[in-house]
Design a protein that fits this description.
Length: 458
C-alpha cells in the first residue's frame, strides 16, 4: 500500500492525515517548524496552531459555517473533535483553548501508529521525473508557505502571483482590563450572554480613535509586496477606517444589542432610541476569551499592520484598556493561494501532475474551518484512490461540497479568483420558494440530509 506524503501540519494537513490514517494508510507529514524555526505568525511547533483568533466562528447550524461544523462532525473530522473537546465560552461561537486544541490533534494522529512526523522543509514539487509520479503528495502548507516552495508552485503553475495579505489581532491580559468601564455581555445576550468584554466609546472618542488609526505609522511593504491584495474578510482596522469614518462603527465596533451596566438604569432605553440618547455608547470594542483558563482576551476584528508603538499608544486610549498589558501585538503576514479553478480538478488534484493534491487555505478557501474541510476532502478522495474505490463528490447542496465547487469549477471567472469563506451564496438554490426567514433552516436541513447520504457512499 502506498505511503502518502503531506506537506504542512496545519489544520488541513492534520485533517488529511487523520482521514488517511483512520483508513489504514501510512502517512508522513513534513513540517518545517521545529524548536528553533517558526514563521512570522506561529509561536510554536505544534500541529494545527491557531494564530489569527481562537474562534472557529458560529456553531449555529443555521449559519453556513455552523453547518460546515456539523457536516465535518458527521464525516469524522479530527479538527472538530478536538474543537469540541477543548471548547471555551464564546456565546454562539465555537472557540477553543488553543494549546489544548493543538496537543489533542497531534496526540490523536500519533496514536494511530500510521503517522510519521519529519521536521524538515520540502522546497519543491515532485513533478519533474516520471518515476516520481507514483509518489502521492498533499500540499497543505496554508497561508505561510515557504518562499522556496511558493516559488516552485509558481514556476509550475504558470500564474503571476500566489499571495495576498492577512493580519492578526492583538491579545491582552484579562487582569489588566478596567471593569469599572468595561463589562461582560454578548450582543443580544446570545450564547451564555456574557462571553465578550465590551469597551464603550463616545462619539468624540470614536472620532479620535479613527483619526489615530489613519495617522498611525504602519508596517512598510517590501517592493515585491506592494501590489499584493488584501482578503476582505480579514482587513486591518486602519484599512477599514480608510473606507469611511463610519465603517468600523457598522463593522467590528457596532454598538447594537448591548446595554452598558455602568449607565443608570433609567437611561437604558429601547434599542430604537440608541443613537439619540446621551451617554449611550457611540461604538463598542469587544474582546473575546483566548485561552481555556480565561487569562487572555483578543480584541475582536482588530487585525492591524500598525507598528507596535502606535498600537500600544492608540489601544490604551480605549476606555477600559488604559492600563492594558499586551500578550501579543497585532501584525501582518503574507498568505499564499492558488488560482484553483484554473489549476485543480474537481477532486483537488494538480492538473499538471495528478500525483499531487492541494488542500487548505492554499486552495483559496478562507478560514480555519474551511481550510480543515478541504484537508478532510483531500484525505477522503486520496484514500478512495489508493483503496480502489470510486466515490462521487459531495454536492453543492452541502456546505463542504459548495466550497469544493467554488474553488474548482464553480467560480465565475478564472481570472479574478479570490479566497472565500463558506456562505449560503455558494449553495445550489433551494428547489422550492421559501420565505426569507426560513431559508437558512431549509438550506441546513437539506445539507445534512445530503451529507448523510454521501457519508454512506464513502
Amino acid at each position: 500500500m502506498k505511503k502518502v506524503n503531506i506537506i504542512g501540519a496545519g489544520l488541513a494537513g492534520s485533517e488529511a492525515a487523520w482521514q488517511l490514517a483512520s483508513r489504514g494508510i501510512e502517512v508522513e507529514i513534513f513540517e518545517m517548524r521545529d524548536e528553533t524555526r517558526k514563521t512570522f505568525a506561529h509561536r510554536t511547533k505544534d500541529f494545527a496552531e491557531l494564530v489569527c483568533s481562537n474562534s472557529l466562528r458560529s456553531d449555529d447550524v443555521t449559519t453556513a459555517i455552523g453547518l460546515l461544523h456539523q457536516e465535518m462532525r458527521l464525516l469524522n473530522s479530527l479538527i472538530m473533535r478536538s474543537a469540541d473537546a477543548n471548547k471555551i465560552p464564546a456565546g454562539s461561537a465555537l472557540a477553543v483553548d488553543r494549546e489544548g486544541f493543538s496537543k489533542f490533534i497531534e496526540s490523536e494522529l500519533l496514536a494511530t501508529n500510521k503517522v510519521k512526523i519529519s521536521r524538515r522543509e520540502i522546497s519543491e514539487l515532485s513533478i519533474n521525473s516520471e518515476e516520481k509520479y507514483e509518489e502521492k503528495w498533499i500540499i497543505a502548507t496554508g497561508p505561510l508557505t515557504s518562499d522556496a516552495l511558493s516559488q516552485s508552485i509558481l514556476e509550475n503553475s504558470g500564474c503571476e502571483h500566489l499571495a495576498f495579505f492577512d493580519a492578526i489581532a492583538p491579545i491582552v491580559y484579562k487582569d489588566s482590563i478596567d471593569f469599572t468601564k468595561a463589562w461582560f455581555q454578548s450582543r443580544y445576550d446570545k450564547g451564555d450572554g456574557a462571553d465578550y468584554v465590551n469597551c464603550p466609546l463616545s462619539k468624540d472618542q470614536y472620532e479620535e480613535f479613527v483619526n489615530d488609526l489613519l495617522t498611525a505609522e504602519k508596517t512598510d511593504f517590501k517592493e515585491w509586496e506592494k501590489n499584493t491584495p488584501y482578503f476582505d474578510g480579514c482587513l486591518p482596522i486602519e484599512v477599514m477606517a480608510e473606507r469611511g469614518a463610519e465603517t468600523l462603527r457598522f463593522g467590528p465596533m457596532k454598538p447594537v444589542g448591548l446595554t452598558n451596566p455602568h449607565i443608570a438604569p433609567s437611561e437604558n432605553v429601547d434599542e430604537k432610541f440608541f443613537k439619540n440618547r446621551p451617554g449611550k455608547p457611540h461604538a463598542v470594542i469587544q474582546l473575546r476569551q483566548d485561552n481555556k483558563i480565561g487569562t487572555l482576551y483578543n480584541i475582536v476584528g482588530f487585525q492591524t499592520k500598525m507598528k507596535y508603538g502606535d498600537q500600544q499608544r492608540i489601544f490604551k486610549k480605549i476606555p477600559g484598556l488604559e492600563n492594558a498589558e499586551f500578550a501579543r501585538f497585532g501584525g501582518i503576514h503574507r498568505n499564499t493561494f492558488l488560482n484553483s479553478p484554473k489549476l485543480l480538478d474537481e477532486y483537488l488534484h494538480f492538473k499538471k501532475s495528478p500525483n499531487i493534491m492541494f488542500a487548505g487555505q492554499v486552495t483559496g478557501v478562507e478560514g480555519y474551518v474551511e481550510s480543515a474541510a478541504m484537508g478532510l476532502l483531500s484525505g477522503i478522495f486520496l484514500s478512495a484512490e489508493i483503496l480502489g474505490k470510486n466515490i462521487s463528490k459531495p454536492t453543492n447542496k452541502t456546505a463542504i461540497g459548495a466550497l469544493l465547487n467554488h474553488i474548482t469549477i464553480g467560480h465565475e471567472s478564472k481570472s479574478d479568483f479570490q479566497p472565500m469563506n463558506v456562505n449560503f451564496g455558494l449553495f445550489e438554490p433551494l428547489a422550492e420558494k421559501t420565505k426569507k426567514i426560513d431559508r437558512k433552516t431549509a438550506y441546513s436541513k437539506r445539507a445534512l440530509h445530503e451529507i448523510e447520504e454521501w457519508k454512506q457512499k464513502i
